[in-house]
């Protein structure tokens, strides 16, 4: 059964167990698909990439909220009123 592998670098579970940091480094900053019996089991990504991904997801959620609220009436206030 074919599977889509969404990474250019792959490693086996055995390779990951032998040297986890070498597996991460093999991706050169990009995801590494970790295979179990030639099927993708999970993706290994550097911490910086994961943090960036979470920030983008948060930004997308905030944009969605802003879009939902774009039709609401504006209320004018001064700094003294706050």
From TrEMBL:
Recorded superkingdom: Bacteria
Cited InterPro entries: phD/YefM_antitoxin
PANTHER family documented for this protein: ANTITOXIN YAFN-RELATED, CYTOPLASMIC PROTEIN
Protein name as it appears in the record: Antitoxin StbD
Originating species: Halomonas shengliensis
């Amino acid at each position: 059964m074919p599977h889509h592998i969404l990474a250019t670098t792959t490693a086996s579970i055995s390779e990951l167990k032998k040297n986890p940091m070498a597996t991460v480094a093999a991706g050169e900053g990009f995801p590494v698909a970790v295979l179990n019996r030639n099927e993708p089991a999970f993706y290994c990504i550097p911490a910086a990439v994961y943090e960036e991904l979470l920030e983008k997801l948060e930004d997308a959620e905030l944009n969605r909220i802003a879009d939902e609220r774009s039709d609401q009436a504006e209320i004018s206030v001064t700094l003294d009123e706050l």
